[in-house]
């Protein structure tokens, strides 16, 4: 059973940085895509970024492009989300999720495995 555990959330001031980690265990495959999603209070969960190492593909939403960087340490089965120039509107619970398949999705319904989430709070 694939298990995902996020870490690295916290509270920072606007302009600051955080690095989130998503550690995968139990199952790994070359056709596994890892995505980061976030959900702010009262809002729907939205896709932030994803990585599909098998095809060397990455995706970023327009709202984080140029500020966030997704990467993977294959030896540690861990995916990172480096978040720079954080804004108050980045405040949310951040989730990592996994999808097994021939493509890497961008929407929550495309992902079947989820972590428990980690809180990111950015103050102005």
Describe this structure in words.
There is one protein chain. By secondary structure, this protein is mainly β. The protein contains no helices and eleven strands. Strands 2, 4, 5, 6, 9, 10 and 11 form a seven-stranded mixed beta sheet that branches. It has a four-stranded antiparallel beta sheet with strand order 1-3-8-7, with no helix packed on it.
Record keyword descriptors for this entry.
single chain; 124 residues; globular; four-stranded antiparallel beta sheet; mainly beta; seven-stranded mixed beta sheet
Question: Number of DSSP helices?
Answer: 0
Structural class: mainly beta
Unreliable runs, pLDDT <50, ≥5 residues? none
Oligomer: single chain
Strand count: 11
Integer-rounded radius of gyration:
13 Å
The global form is: globular
- Classify the helix fraction into a percent range: under 10%
Give a quick summary of the entry.
The chain has 124 residues and is mainly beta. The chain is built from no helices and 11 strands.
